[in-house]
Amino acid sequence: MLSIKGGTVTLSVSTAATDSTRRGTPGGQDELPWIEDGSAVAPKDARVLSRLFLDRLQVLEEGTREYQYARNTLIEMNLSLVRFAAGRFRNRGSGEMEDVVQVGTVGLIKAIDRFDLAREVEFTSFAIPYIVGEIKRFFRDTTWSVHVPRRLQELRSELAKAKEYLAVELDRDPTPRELAVHLGRDEEEIIDGIVAANGYTAGSLDTSAESQEGGQSASGKARTLSDFIGAEDPGMERVEDLNALGPLMEELSDRERRIVSMRFGQELTQAQIGTELGVSQMQVSRLLSKILAKLRTGLVDDPATA
């Protein structure tokens, strides 16, 4: 029996392996070689062996031990195809290369399950489109920072090629109208595609900002984009309240405005205000409650603050 171990091809007889292979094989003919590590098989040998395994896979009963051995060995022997296809996306952007290889392996499995020797094509030629298609689908579904309709995702690729072509032809960046004419699309659709393309990647707020000072503050520390993003100023709400109170304060009597000024401007106590006005602290408390209720009612009823 042919045995392949560690990439070395040897001839050996394994009764257990032979019996195992013959089970589920009609008449026990054309038994498969025992390959301990399919990933160690050289690509040239893998092409030859893959055809043999694919041929036997079509007659083996699905779910049997022999079927699983043939299928798993085919996957291991052809992982080099996945790594080759994944290498084309090495500089694509986000994601670890290991994730891309795993996704490509899904495409390889689909190719193995759907391959038909009657088509008389090489398995590598059949499998590569499946692998690449699965990887492209992975990038399409996961690399966009913002969810964008698929038609606009596909338009982004067309726009990139059209921009590159027209930039050479016109010696400048093309306008949306020129892109629309070149692609045979509506100008509004082109504008939507340009806007949607901004959702492909998202910049980090920790990215160093370029400025006339070289992106550094006076202290020499590099400034990031977050340094230029404004924060909500709690004092703004106070300003809005004061502006809204202005007209309402004018409606108060001189005595009422004086009480408000002493209490909230000079921050006098009710007892001190009572001494100034010659009234009791209790009377000051009632007057303040009446004044504040009048101001609150005015603020609620003011359409500018509603």
Multimer state:
single chain
* Largest sheet entry: 3 strands, mixed
Q: Percent of residues in beta strands? A: under 5%
Helix content: 55-70%
SSE pattern, N- to C-terminal: EEHEHHHHHHHHHHHH
Summed up, the helix count is 13
Structural class by sheet pairing and helices: mainly alpha
Q: In total, how many beta strands?
A: 3
Rg over CA atoms, rounded to whole Å, is: 38 Å
Widest sheet: strand ordering: 2-1-3
Please explain how this structure is put together.
The protein has helices spanning 15-22, 43-57, 65-77, 79-87, 97-114, 123-142, 150-170, 176-183, 187-197, 234-250, 254-265, 270-277, 281-301; strands at 2-5, 8-11, 34-35. 59% of the residues lie in helices and 3% in strands. It has a three-stranded mixed sheet with strand order 2-1-3, with no helix packed on it. The chain contains 13 helices and three strands. Residues 1-29 and 211-218 have low confidence and may be disordered. It has 306 residues and is mainly alpha-helical. The chain has four domains: 1-77, no CATH class; 89-143, no CATH class; 145-201, Arc Repressor Mutant, subunit A; 253-306. Helix 2 packs antiparallel against helix 3 and helix 7 packs across helix 8.
Write the layout of secondary structure elements.
Elements: E1 2-5, E2 8-11, H1 15-22, E3 34-35, H2 43-57, H3 65-77, H4 79-87, H5 97-114, H6 123-142, H7 150-170, H8 176-183, H9 187-197, H10 234-250, H11 254-265, H12 270-277, H13 281-301
Parallel strand pairs: 1-3
Antiparallel strand pairs: 1-2
Helix pairs in contact: 2-3, 4-5, 4-6, 5-6, 7-8, 7-9, 8-9, 12-13
